[in-house]
């Protein structure tokens, strides 16, 4: 993850970089961030955190994170991305009932009375949910007490503008400007 910090207090940049990296790692989001730009103006107080994700958030289906094999009216699922195991099981239980879903091992699930086509298309994680998680992770990296926030989202770029009290037009314009710069940077980040 490439992190750029622009701050009026240069002496705190390394600490803030470490804090940002640690929090994003702790919540499991560091891997997804290609670049982060942190604008820190604590004297105002005013902060802009803009991140570029490696990929655009999209819905995840069972076929995205598991291999599916049909045998008669039964389906065998081998989970290839462990992070989604609880979501897969929850969705299968909801659709087919617990009595028809048997988790044989940590990664292998057997489903009775199902078709491969149905199972392949079951959504287990929404792109919207992923965005909410990323925004929440960015909020956690901001100083405590900074509760007035505005978020810009376009494709792979999320920018959060934050202050303690009331936004000025200039603050929102600055946030949008950095958001656009991050979008224009594209693969050159």
UniProtKB/TrEMBL annotation:
Organism superkingdom: Archaea
Protein name: Methanogenesis marker 17 protein
Organism, scientific name: Candidatus Methanoplasma termitum
């Amino acid at each position: 993850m490439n992190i750029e910090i622009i701050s009026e207090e240069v002496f705190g940049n390394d600490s803030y970089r470490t804090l940002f990296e640690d929090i994003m790692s702790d919540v499991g989001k560091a891997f997804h961030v290609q670049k982060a730009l942190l604008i820190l103006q604590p004297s105002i107080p005013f902060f802009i955190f803009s991140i570029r994700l490696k990929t655009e958030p999209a819905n995840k289906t069972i076929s995205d994170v598991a291999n599916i094999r049909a045998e008669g009216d039964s389906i065998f699922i081998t989970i290839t991305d462990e992070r989604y195991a609880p979501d897969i099981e929850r969705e299968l239980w909801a659709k087919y009932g617990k009595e028809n879903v048997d988790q044989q091992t940590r990664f292998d699930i057997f489903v009775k009375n199902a078709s491969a086509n149905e199972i392949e298309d079951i959504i287990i994680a929404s792109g919207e949910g992923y965005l909410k998680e990323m925004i929440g992770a960015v909020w956690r990296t901001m100083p405590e007490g900074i509760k007035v926030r505005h978020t810009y989202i376009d494709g792979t770029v999320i920018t959060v503008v934050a202050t303690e009290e009331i936004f000025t037009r200039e603050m929102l314009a600055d946030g949008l400007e950095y958001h656009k710069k991050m979008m224009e940077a594209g693969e050159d980040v």
